[in-house]
Design a protein that fits this description.
- The protein has 99 residues and is mainly α.
- The longest helix is centred in the middle third of the chain and has 15 residues.
């Protein structure tokens, strides 16, 4: 994750859930797919996990659940449920691009 993207996530995480939901919208507007948005959140959490408060980590996990669709239909951030297979395929593509 580049510094600019990490800074966007840092700022949104500091402002809380509504800012993270707004970040999801921004990423979608930039043309990122559901898988790509999820992988960005996963990469941020992995990179910053050691310094995140438990509360911030819980909020990130909640947003990630909402991206995937593991929540009520009204809380989903995308129309479709994201399968583990789709996430794994996205990881494999990313690994090939960046290795």
């Amino acid at each position: 994750m580049d510094d600019t993207t990490a800074s966007l996530f840092d700022g949104a995480t500091a402002r809380g859930e509504s800012a993270l939901v707004a970040l999801v919208s921004r990423l979608r507007e930039r043309g990122l797919s559901q898988v790509d948005v999820y992988l960005h959140f996963e990469a941020y959490r992995s990179a910053r996990g050691a310094v995140l408060s438990e509360q911030d980590d819980d909020v990130l996990l909640e947003i990630m659940d909402r991206i995937v669709g593991h929540c009520s239909e009204s809380s989903r951030l995308f129309d479709e449920h994201l399968s583990n297979e789709a996430i794994d395929a996205g990881r494999q593509i990313s690994a090939r691009l960046f290795d």
